[in-house]
Amino acid sequence: MFNTSDIYTVSDFNRKPSEHIKRLSKNKRPEILTVNGKAAVIVQDAEAYEEMAKRADMMDSINNIKEALAQKGRPISEFFKEFEKKHGISSAEIQG
Prior knowledge:
- By secondary structure, the chain is of the alpha+beta class.
- The chain is 64% helix and 15% strand.
- The chain folds into two domains: 4-44, YefM-like fold (3-Layer(aba) Sandwich), CATH 3.40.1620; 48-95, no CATH class.
- The longest helix is centred in the middle third of the chain and has 27 residues, at 46-72.
């Protein structure tokens, strides 16, 4: 997810914010900003963040469903087969 080319100092970000924003918007990869050589913050394009948050929410939902089904003793593979049939999509599409 991160490349060494995605690491910058906070000072560099402060000096050239528009350059960083253009790069973030173009490549959709987050940047690691460092202070005294240590990672301090992650900066990310808003659209890429929304996609990441959407996927995290989806995974939370799937995990909650998986836990609920496990308590009832229903195998997750059975649920996915039924879900795929009902909604006309595959689990590969769900998992991205």
